[in-house]
Amino acid sequence: MKYLHLSALVLTAVFASGCSINVKARELPRQDLIPGGVAMFDIGVSQQAPKVTFDNQPVMLIPQTTSAGTDWHAVVGIELKSEPGPRQLSINGKTVDFQVGQHQYAEQRLTVQNKHVNPSEEALKRIRSESQLMRTAFQSFSEAGKDTWQPMIWPAQGPLSSPFGLQRFFNGERRNPHTGLDIAAPQGAEIIAPASGKVVQTGDYYFNGNTVMIDHGQGLVTMFCHLSRIDVKAGDLLKQGDHVGLVGATGRATGPHLHWTLSLNNARVNPKLFMQESLLPSPVATQE
Question: Which of 27, 93, 159, 186 can bridge 285 by disulfide, Cβ–Cβ 3.0-4.6 Å?
Answer without folding.
Answer: 159
